[in-house]
Automatic annotation (TrEMBL):
The lineage of its organism: Bacteria, Pseudomonadati, Pseudomonadota, Betaproteobacteria, Burkholderiales. Residues 205-228 have a biased composition (Polar residues). Residues 185-251 are annotated as: Disordered. InterPro entries: ImuA_translesion, P-loop_NTPase, UCP037290. This is Translesion DNA synthesis-associated protein ImuA. It comes from Orrella marina. Signal peptide: none annotated.
Length: 251
């Protein structure tokens, strides 16, 4: 009989609480850490966070990880559905000079940009909103991520839970629960918890942080720092934007 150690790193027994075979970054949330391999977010892997709407606090889940990764490589927001709230990012003490907002014109350019960012290994974290996306493209992005040490997170609608995904970790954020914000672990290495993971009282939890703002003042604040925004009307402009991200690593 095959032992767990004999299996490929992307194959695991559902009954095993195996340690991750990939690098991780601390999750920073005690309840979540208890259910993640090596108590952290896997790097170089596709992670999916499912929500019923954008701007419900999904980014605050990643604040401890982004702080741990905020060295010289930038954090890239790719095609966010709402304008990033720079005041929230400053409150999180994340260096805005290392925050890049790339807004492609359409989904195909977003998929292309994500693949180039992962292949070039120019970002510490890539947070991507590029749904709908089919399983073939997800697999392609997942393979590109595996050649990097990037924290790669795709935010997708809750109804994507029934669709196939190669993601090694899938979480559903339930922000409007009467018991407070919680996470449902849909897929991970090892067994799933019997109950949802409560985030009530966690530092930087979804109930206490504002992550997005669609007001004109927020847009003005975002665009006041030229390193924060990169509009991408087409693929040629995307290449220029990605070169700027790569150059920012050595600033």
């Amino acid at each position: 009989m095959l032992q767990s150690a004999d299996l490929h790193r992307d194959v695991w027994r559902a009954s095993d609480r195996a340690h991750a075979t990939v690098a991780t970054v601390p999750a920073g949330h005690a309840a979540l850490s208890a259910w993640l391999p090596d108590e952290g977010w896997p790097l170089g892997q596709l992670i999916e966070i499912l929500t019923d709407r954008p701007g419900c606090g999904e980014l605050s889940l990643l604040v401890p990880a982004m702080l741990a990764l905020s060295g010289k490589c930038p954090i890239v927001l790719l095609r966010p559905p709402l304008i990033p709230n720079m005041q929230a990012w400053q409150q999180w003490q994340i260096d805005l000079h290392r925050l890049w907002w790339i807004q492609p014109a359409g989904l195909h350019d977003a998929w292309w940009s994500a693949e180039q960012i992962l292949r070039s290994q120019c970002a510490a974290a890539l947070l991507c909103w590029a749904d709908p996306i089919d399983a073939r493209l997800l697999r392609r992005l997942h393979l590109s991520a595996q050649a990097s040490d990037t924290l790669f997170v795709m935010f997708r609608p809750r109804d994507s839970a029934s669709l196939f995904s190669p993601a090694v970790l899938r979480l559903e954020l339930i922000a409007d629960s009467a018991q407070g914000p919680s996470l449902r672990l849909l897929k991970s290495r090892g067994p799933k918890p019997a109950h949802d993971i409560s985030l009530r009282g966690e530092p930087g939890s979804v109930s206490t942080m504002c992550t997005t703002d669609s007001s004109p003042s927020a847009e003005t604040g975002a665009r006041s720092n030229p390193q924060t925004v990169c509009d991408v009307p087409d693929r040629r402009s995307a290449r220029a934007g990605l070169r700027a991200v790569e150059r920012s690593q050595v600033v």
